[in-house]
Amino acid sequence: MDEQTEQDVVDLLTAQHEQITTLLGQLKSGHDDKQDVFNELVRLLAVHESAEEEIVHPVAERAQFGADQIVEPRLAEENEAKHALAELYDLGVDHPDFDSKLTEFADAVAAHAAHEEAEEFTLLRRQYSVNQLTHMAGSVRAAEAVAPTRPHPHAGESALANLIGGPPLALFDRTRDAVRDWSRSQER
Questions:
Q1: Rounded Cα gap, residues 49 and 32, in angstroms
Q2: CA–CA distances in Å: residue 131 to residues 7, 79, 88, 120
C-alpha cells in the first residue's frame, strides 16, 4: 500500500493545512510568481473547505452529543473565509489593498486551522477507528476531485449545499481554469 492509501483523514487535512500555511507565507513574503501562488492557494482552499463541509463536519457532528459546539463555529469561520477569499480574488494580487487584506485573511485561516486541529480532529481521533478515519480520507479525496476550485460564498456551507451546488460550480470553475491556463500558455 502507498502512503496516500494509509493516510487517515486527520493526517490528510493537517498536511493540507501545512500546504495552505506555506502558500500564505509565500504570498506574504512577495513570491515572484504571486499570481500563480495565489491561484494555487484559492484552488487548495476551495477544494479543502468543500470536502470538509461535505464529509468531515457531518461525521464530526455525529461523533458525540455536543459536537455541534465544535462544528458550528468552524462552519461560521469557513463561511467568513469564503467571503474574504472571494474579496481577495476579486481585488487581484496587484491591488494596493491586497497585501493588508491577505494578512488579515492569513491570521483568520491560521486560527481556524488551529481550532480544527485542537478540537474537531481530536474529536475524530477519539470517536472513530483508524480504519474509519482512513476510509474518510478516501471520501475526502473523492469529494475534492469534484469540488469547485474557487470560493462560492453564496452557495452555502452545508453538506447538502456542497452536494447540490458543488458539481456544476466545479465544472464551471475547472473550465475557467483550463481556459486561463491555455491563455497563459499562448502568451509565453
A1: 27
A2: 10, 30, 39, 18
Residue 155, classed as helix, strand or coil, is coil
> Hey, what's the cell of 71?
462544528
Instruction: Judge whether 7 and 139 are in contact, CB under 8 Å.
Output: no
Would you tell me how many other CB atoms lie within 10 Å of the CB of residue 144? Answer: 22
Residue 5: how many other CB atoms lie within 10 Å: 10
CB 12 within 8 A of CB 141: yes
Integer Cα distance of 34 and 43 in angstroms: 14
pLDDT mean by block of 10 residues, the chain; 188 residues: 71 97 93 89 89 88 73 87 89 94 96 94 92 94 79 51 47 45 55
Answer whether 0.90 is exceeded by the pTM.
no
Q: Which residue has the cell 504571486?
A: 34
Whose grid coordinates read 504570498?
A: 27
Half-sphere exposure of 169 (CA within 13 A, CB side): 21
